[in-house]
Specification:
The complex is a heterodimer. Helix content of chain A is about 70%, strand content about 5%. Chain A is of the alpha+beta class. Chain A has a four-stranded antiparallel β-sheet. Chain A has a two-stranded antiparallel sheet with strand order 4-5. Chain B has two domains: about 200 residues, D-Maltodextrin-Binding Protein, domain 2, CATH 3.40.190; about 100 residues, D-Maltodextrin-Binding Protein, domain 2, CATH 3.40.190.10. Chains A and B meet through helix 3, helix 7 and helix 13 of A and helix 1, helix 4, helix 5, helix 6 and strand 10 of B.
């Protein structure tokens, strides 16, 4: 669009005195446009030559190319975690299944990490501005400590601490004999849904939707009449109460598989592996320091008068934080926080150091080594990170637009 | 603009130049050292001591090639690589040769653009457990967590073996040897699996070797050997025959101590470059094999010095004995 405008503009100008090459030559915009075209052609040419060269070299060295390896049998095992269950992975699965397993495991870390780091970051960011000396200094110390140690080191530290600190499976810490914690991870009861469980799940969904409308109704009422009604009792009744009643009426259609001690390990149950716990914890704790700083800068950017005005009209400190300060602070805090979400997702590839089977470890590591086609495999992995990152930015840009000051 | 054009032209030339296949021997002689990929530390095979000196049977193959091509076994630059990094480092030309307990398989030989130049250790995959578990056979391992290094044939063998024998296990994969060992020591897994030689090496490095048992089952063939890039047959021959020279020297009873003795055995004289013209065929000086034996020693010397029965690793020659001694070590003739 921009280019077209320049051409039309420059043509338009020339047409006053007739289309003249001399005018074009001395026209700044036309010259700038010409040089941009030349640069563009050179850059494209350079990349074209470089990629052509790459494939020629690969071919000359007798290295396989192409994507047929994706269909081949993988032949190796992957540490059993969520990805394995989603894909139903066995060594007989294809290399493409490994890609899928890795992708699922990456997304799980990113998802849990983003939620955890946001919660910790929000808490620490607010605590750092607390009037309580001890709380403020503790929060400051936390940020300085975790922000200034390299993330790879932290991941290795938490992982090695975990496997050395917790006991052998034979001496697991047991919680009510249904949950176990040992050096091989956390063993939770594995839910096995039976007939009718879907109805309970649907009623949960209905409860969430209904509570949204209840909230909307009372908000409107508040705006119209000024009468404030707390909606949380309705929300709890709808979101928790409704599905529980449906669940009980149907006769509790859910069984749990609890881990039991086998010869070497706990068997059964749902094993949350230490690699996942250490990685997610390290990434959340590290990223939270940056988010906390973003929140702090946001809060400090809100004019002092806002807080004073809130106090003057009789809002409590909690109300003032929730209704006046945070909504304005988040406007400033959201863009840098988006960056941290992206960083967290990309940093999850450091899992390869402790062997958590995410994309770069399972697919970009093991498959790459068994197949040896670095260019194709790394290109696929890069594309995935690119898509995830772009998706997160898109989502949060949407949130950012919603939060931004609306023109009235 | 002119500058930009020049710059672009220059970059095109640089990228273009990469496609020219240079001779590895010429490169090595021009830079004055052999760049050799080794492990990040596997006692007896390739490991560095506190002063940074590398030793091991794999290291000796690198040294033999340096002695043959540069006349000095010390002119080696060792590049420590993880199992995952090794092939890419060789393919990209970062190293001249790879001597890193690497198993020769058809996939690696035929699809990675690499060539295996021989076998310097015949190995097989085994299992090690803590004595306290009271396990005496790998067949009892169902339900165990197994520590394993990423990017190895071991991962594939284990899956095949588990399927064939109906044994279920959890594989705990780590990037480096060190982390694999840490995981095993800490108890993240019950079993450590890798090539049997590696197990002996790790057991020797443990604080109390008697706490660990290497189980009797060997579940695979793991012929380990040096690797070079495809497309440079001269370099391929140099590496292959440097290793063969060490094996032939043992067969002929030539050691680093007796290499200067003149004998009337024609094959021995040929090996030492005092007659014949084999050196011309590989493009080296007549004393290339002499330098190998003089500076590095024959195969037996290297073996006994690094992993033999009198070292802490304590591996018997077994299948790695010469064919004349009941093993399968066999070099084609120097003729």
């Amino acid at each position: 669009m921009y280019m077209k405008k320049i051409i039309l503009d420059s043509l338009g100008k020339s047409q006053h005195r007739g289309l003249n090459f001399r005018d074009m030559l001395y026209n700044n915009e036309a010259r700038a446009f010409f040089f941009q075209i030349v640069t563009f052609v050179l850059v494209v040419g350079l990349f074209y030559t470089a990629i052509g060269n790459l494939f020629q070299n690969i071919d000359e060295r007798g290295i396989n190319t192409g994507f047929t390896f994706l269909k081949n049998r993988a032949g190796f095992d992957i540490l059993p975690f969520l990805g394995n269950y989603v894909v139903d992975y066995t060594p007989e699965s294809s290399n493409f299944s490994v890609f899928y397993v890795g992708l699922v495991n990456t997304l799980v870390v990113a998802f849990v990490g983003i939620i955890l780091s946001t919660l910790i970051g929000l808490l620490i960011g607010i605590a750092r501005l607390s009037n309580n000396y001890l709380v403020a200094k503790l929060a400051g110390g936390y940020i300085e400590l975790f922000r200034n140690v390299p993330i790879l080191l932290q991941i290795l530290f938490w992982y090695n601490l975990f496997i050395n600190l917790f006991p052998h499976p034979k001496q697991s810490f047991a919680f009510f004999d249904i949950m176990f914690l040992n050096q091989r991870g956390l063993y939770l009861p594995k839910p096995i849904p039976e007939d009718g469980f879907m109805l309970a799940a649907i009623s949960l969904l209905l409860g969430i939707i209904a509570s949204y409308f209840v909230k909307k109704y009372y908000k409107k009422k508040h705006e119209l009449t000024g009468i404030h009604t707390s909606t949380w009792p309705f929300s709890i009744a709808l979101i928790l109460g409704l599905p529980i009643i449906v669940f009980l009426i149907l006769g509790s259609p859910l069984q749990f598989d609890i881990a039991v001690l086998g010869k070497f390990n706990l068997r059964g149950g749902m094993n949350v592996v230490p690699e996942f716990l250490a990685l997610t914890f390290a990434l959340s704790v590290y990223t939270a320091t940056y988010i906390a700083e973003a929140i702090r800068s946001g809060i400090e950017a809100v004019d002092k008068g806002q807080k004073e005005a809130a106090a003057a009209i009789g809002l409590t400190p909690t109300q003032s934080l929730k209704l006046i300060i945070l909504p304005q602070a988040l406007r400033v805090a959201i863009p840098p926080t988006i960056n941290q979400y992206l960083n967290l997702t990309k940093n999850s590839s450091l899992a390869t150091a402790i062997g958590y089977p995410e994309l770069m470890s399972a697919f970009g590591g093991t498959v790459l080594n068994q197949v040896g086609q670095a260019v194709e495999i790394l290109a696929m992995a890069m594309l995935v990170y690119l898509v995830i990152s772009l998706f997160i930015s898109l989502l949060l840009n949407y949130v950012n637009n919603k939060m931004a000051i609306q023109g009235r | 603009m002119k500058q930009l054009l020049k710059l672009s032209a220059a970059s095109l030339l640089v990228v273009g130049a990469l496609s020219v296949q240079a001779s590895t021997l010429g490169d090595v002689q021009a830079k004055g050292y052999v760049s050799c990929g080794v492990s990040k530390g596997l006692a007896g095979f390739s490991s560095a001591d506190s002063s940074g000196t590398w030793t091991g049977v794999d290291v000796d193959v690198c040294r033999a090639v340096a002695a043959a091509t540069l006349g000095d076994a010390q002119k080696v630059k060792f590049v420590p690589l993880t199992a995952k990094e090794r092939f890419t480092a060789l393919q990209s030309g970062e190293i001249d040769m790879l001597s890193r307990n690497t198993t020769w398989t058809i996939t690696r030989d035929a699809s990675l653009g690499l060539n295996f130049a021989g076998v310097n250790y015949y190995d097989g995959q085994g299992f090690m457990v803590k004595s306290s578990l009271g396990v005496s056979s790998a067949m009892e391992l169902s339900g165990a967590a197994v520590c394993i290094q990423a990017g190895t044939t071991t991962e594939l063998n284990l899956a095949d073996w588990g399927k064939a024998n109906g044994i279920e296990y959890n594989s705990v994969v780590s990037d480096t040897n060190a982390q694999t060992l840490t995981n095993y020591d800490a108890g993240r897994c019950d079993v450590l699996t890798t090539d049997a030689s590696g197990l002996y090496s790790m057991r020797a490095a443990a604080s109390d070797p008697s706490e660990h048992v290497v189980l009797p089952e060997i579940i695979s063939k793991e012929p380990l050997g040096p690797v070079v890039r495809q497309g440079d047959d001269q370099w391929f021959n140099i590496v292959r025959w440097s290793l063969n020279a060490m094996i032939t020297a043992e067969e002929l009873g030539v050691t680093s101590a007796t290499v200067d003795d003149v004998s009337n055995n024609p094959e021995r004289e040929r090996l030492m470059g005092r007659s014949g013209s084999t050196h011309e065929y590989v493009g080296l000086t007549p004393d290339w094999t002499y330098q190998i034996v003089k500076q590095v020693g024959n195969y037996s010397e290297s073996f006994e010095r690094n992993i033999g029965i009198n070292t802490p690793i304590g591996i018997a020659r077994g299948v790695n004995a010469l064919w004349t001694d009941g093993g399968i070590l066999y070099s084609p003739p120097f003729r």
